[in-house]
Amino acid sequence: MDIRKLDRTAVLETVRLVQQADPTDWDLPTPCAGWTLRQLVAHMAGQHHGFAAAASGGGDDLEVWQPSALGEDPSKTYRDAAWTAIDAFAQPSALTREFILPEISTDRRFPATVAIGFHFLDYVVHGWDVARTLGVPLDLDEQTAEAALAFALRVPDDERRLVPDPLFRPALPAAPGASSLDLVLTTLGRSPDWSAAAAL
Prior knowledge:
Blueprint: H1 3-18, H2 37-55, H3 74-90, E1 98-100, E2 109-111, H4 112-134, H5 142-152, H6 180-187, H7 196-199
Antiparallel strand pairs: 1-2
Helix pairs in contact: 1-3, 1-4, 2-3, 2-4, 4-5, 5-6
């Protein structure tokens, strides 16, 4: 499993999805409770910059993890941020580095493959968030969804999901015969049936 290839696939799918947003979409609700599409994409862009900094040894700077100002062209701002992370992970030194990820732990360092795996899982899920918000399909193949599920199943379902603004909510029951992607979602506390229309 080439985690960088998987991550690139997931991230570029989010770029494709964000580019479909028109000016009337940015205030739509998303599956991330309390966040509009603009707030979600600002968070996603900020996380790209944070992970890119971590890949270069600067993950301990909390400022680089802040949501990005999207400006007048949110899609372009997001696309540029996404490529910042893709390019950072592609550097030969990135795979030998231990990443500092302060939003996960302030006293642990994570092997590169684990850290990029976190990023990959996040963008599979956030890709679904954007797709559902816009009412368009998420285009990820089964291999990518299965890889994301393997990472999702490693995320502890414990008291850390009960705090205000958790990284993930408590797991939900899955429907019989659920797809790999739906299992990713329910494992991380999202309902595959969520829709922006129902949330309005």
